[in-house]
Specification:
2 domains, flat, 40 strands, Udp-n-acetylmuramoylalanyl-d-glutamate--2,6- Diaminopimelate Ligase, Chain: A, domain 1, alpha/beta, homotrimer, 10-stranded parallel β-sheet, 342 residues, 12-stranded mixed β-sheet, UDP N-Acetylglucosamine Acyltransferase, domain 1
């Protein structure tokens, strides 16, 4: 597939600077893109490469002011990142092989139903009493336990595991190795120092348009007929732990290796960076941002806060204290000196 | 199944306040429970909901003093959490479908033996020379490598992986995606900057009543005939890393995403919270508690300590220093002002 | 297999102190080794055990000065750890059962090719258009998506997952549950607060001699024809997250549960300890060492630095500040006292 710079500008409602008739046939990073390739500039850190790039064309912001002459044609748009993403999607759809049909050997229980245009890979397992919607893709080695439901257009990649009773909304993506519905970690201490399991009898529910990353684990809720929930449009990255009874709000984004302890409720439109830990039984307000590796130990009631640190509090406070932390040995010496003087 | 409040109080050796003849048929959280539902109050944080709850009955502590009138019947017991757990267990046993038999296609090597009343799911794999006890459940896509043993009543969920030579005690639970016996991370640096693998020739051993969470990894020991060990009754949550030669003591509980480096021995009855890291070659005394996200860099010799921080030391010390850390910019200004004065 | 102390010294080019004709038949830890067992001493922490050990022979450093009489024979070498490792390797090769052949049922697409002397376990899946080299071992439940290549002598353990287009070099090891090529975590925020997926169209590439630990996840690159890369000889432990477009340099070693955010490039011969987090879009110089649990938030330009802390800076600075941090309550009191005086 080859497109002219003009054609691409038209798709993106952008304007061309330079030769609109040049042709591009693939994508490349601005640092390394070569002739025939289309690139984009969305992050100021990479502006230096603009002036040395061999790309045929580059998508840039309407606001960009050039400081030197450049070789590539420019396509100016309001949001280069979003525009580039639109193009990639277009390209992907054109390329995608649409898998359908049932590969053998696979295991589909006779009491389970499968919609139209589904793909079931070899060695996939669908237990008793499941309802699988239309256009669902279930890759090899995926495990769907008893009485699960998976709504239309969802994709369950190879080796993802859904314990009994899991509910998956429409247009969800569950990546390889993700585990939904394993037992919550609830142990009642006994007098002799041993522990007795608190039965974990709930399930996991993903609303529509949820994405779950590779090897992420979401434990089932404790109570029967009760769910650990990830709401509409939330995006959960790889290797994340969501403990029993947790609720993740709509359009909340959580980066890799973060853990949320039991019964905590995270609001809508929050952003949790990577390796964050959140203590159990908290409520986190909508639009909260938590910096990477932070430990959240208290509920956050006001919307729109950004917290950081261990334990976490407001990020500006943490960083100004940390700047002084670096001078602590000096401060200690100065204090001792003052004491001697006084 | 429906029970009267009276019947439940009898099971729990509790006393009823209110109408003992009311009937309940399921469980609910105190915040949301409705008519016909039974709930419990074990955490003071939720006491406010007691006065607005629509539950038919609530299990509470003998010590609870009511501050307002309430609608639900109360069942008073000495430990509401333990009582509730007993009920759930009762309910679960009643509901549970007892899986037995062998689904096809599965792979069971002819040199391996299987006890009575086992379940082997489709696509499960049992290699050469394995001994599987009675009433063991091996779910679809579980992998049991050569020469493994799994004792009576253990459950291996879908997609759990046991490398060659793994030993699993009785009544253990291994959740989906857990990996036991992968190579320890041992690399001998070479003169040219590359690394040569130190062969990892031991195995993993779980004693009885051990629970391993989803996607947790436990590496094999380095030495032949030597084990990375999780002792009797220890409970290991999801996404945890136990490195080669680690020993976890009896009835020790480790929360999600914690990592223990090579050759460290954790004592009995310890509690490690989530996202903790423990350096290699340490010894941690019995009954040690480690706060969430802490980094333990030294052995702990005295029993019963609670540590916190990065690196970790006694939790009271850390938290009082952290309280002052928040004032560091102010302290810096005050110190500079004093210096000018002096 | 039984060897004399003399024979072992010959293999290792070492010298014997004590009875060279004693026989050993297995290995043991210095703390617990018994008669007939060979042990080694590489870490000063264990020197105390030398004088009480019942091992028949112990490999020690040429430099070791004995402070008391000892019972075992000694084999003196320049590097006891490396020597011991050589022996283990020797022993392992002798013991190893060389798996070859194809177990049924497995799924190998007709358009894919397999080299000589391969092993394909039952329930393994090899998709359309794959090229598998000679002497490759693919264990049960491994998933190799479309158009993947795996070069000679590589091992893919049970349940590892390779998404479409993954390239694996020669002599690589991929442990159970590792996921290579899942979608990068790229989401374009929309005006209504929801997110739209940025298509992730690249792949994952491992060069030769790379090792990937159990349940580690490596996301595919964003751009078509572009790779998230792990270069020659790098060793990646368990439960690690490498995000889209990351590059890991040659012979770099990364310990468990570390995460590297998108588009960051880690240099050659670096060491990242466990539970480290690295922010996206950074460049880390060759030979950088990062202490455990550190958060790296800025590029590191100078080679050979060791950093630590949250956020990370030079380790000596952090630790001297942390020593003073522990005295902060005292400092605060002393400052207030001085102020009253002045």
């Amino acid at each position: 597939m080859e497109f002219s710079v003009e054609q691409i500008a038209t798709i993106l409602s952008g304007t061309v600077e330079g030769d609109a008739e040049l042709m591009v046939n693939t994508f490349g990073k601005i640092q390394t893109a070569d002739e025939g390739e289309l690139s984009f500039l969305a992050n100021d850190k990479y502006e230096q490469y603009l002036y040395t790039s061999n790309a045929t064309a580059i998508i840039v912001s309407n606001d960009l002011v050039l400081t030197k002459p450049i070789k590539p044609a420019l396509i100016r748009v309001s949001d280069p990142y979003a525009s580039f993403s639109t193009l990639l999607e277009f390209y992907e759809k054109a390329q995608q092989s649409q898998k359908t049909g049932i590969e053998e050997p696979s295991f589909i229980h006779e009491n389970s139903s499968l919609g139209d245009e589904c793909y079931v890979g070899a060695f996939a397992y669908i237990g008793d009493g499941c309802k699988i919607g239309n256009n669902v893709k279930i890759y090899p080695h995926a495990y769907i336990g008893e009485n699960c439901t998976v709504a239309d257009n969802s994709i369950i990649y190879s080796g993802a595991k859904l314990y009994e009773g899991t509910k998956v909304g429409s247009s969800c993506i569950i990546h390889s190795g993700a585990v939904l519905g394993s037992d919550g970690f609830g142990w009642a201490p006994q007098d002799d120092g041993s522990y007795k399991a608190i039965p974990q009898m709930g399930y996991v529910e993903l609303e529509d348009n949820v994405s779950i990353g590779a090897n992420t684990t979401i434990d089932c809720a404790t109570f029967p007929n009760s769910a650990t929930q990830v709401k509409e449009g939330a995006k959960i990255d790889n290797l994340i732990m969501l403990a029993h009874n947790v609720v993740i709000g709509k359009h909340t984004v959580i980066a890799a290796q973060t853990g949320v302890s039991g019964s905590t409720e995270i609001g809508d439109n929050c952003i949790l960076a990577g390796q964050v830990g959140v203590v159990g039984h908290l409520e986190i307000a909508n639009k909260t941002t938590v910096g990477a590796q932070s430990g959240v130990s208290k509920s956050i009631k006001k919307e729109g806060e950004t917290v950081f640190g261990y334990p976490a509090y407001d990020i500006k406070g943490y960083l100004s204290s940390y700047a002084v932390f670096k001078k602590l040995p000096e401060i200690y010496r100065r204090l001792s000196k003052l004491e001697k003087k006084s």
